[in-house]
Amino acid sequence: MGTGEVGMNRSACSALLQSVPWADPARISFLLSLAAMDVMVVLGNCLVIIAVFISSKLRSVTNLFIVSLAVADLMVGLAVLPFSATWEVFEVRTKCM
Fold first, then answer.
1. Distance between terminal CA atoms of the chain?
2. Cα 79 from chain centre
3. Distance (Å, rounded) from C-alpha 32 to C-alpha 50?
């Protein structure tokens, strides 16, 4: 893209989205496996956060640092992974703006 170009126009973007094979069984199964991993990311980080805050023996500076990393990873698992997995599986790599 040259200088000043923002992305695709609406008609080109909608044509690209209509050409995406949304019902391909192989892509759906790959997306479901990525969704299962995303669920494990979310649940695992929730368990870490809950364990540190429930048990007083686990409340140390090191474990609070681990909790902050778990919170950051939890936010990525909730806000980024579902969308990036969908875009990656269906190869919708566009600049539709």
1. 14
2. 6
3. 27
DSSP 11-63: HHHHHHHHTS-TT-HHHHHHHHHHHHHHHHHHHHHHHHHHHHHH-GGG-SHHH
pLDDT at residue 38 is higher than 90: yes
CA distances from 1 to 5, 7, 41, 94 (A): 6, 8, 36, 12
pLDDT digits (tens, 9 = 90+) for 54-68: 999 999 999 999 999
Is 63 exposed, middle or buried (CB count within 10 Å of its CB: 0-12, 13-18, 19+)?
A: middle
Q: pTM of the prediction?
A: 0.72
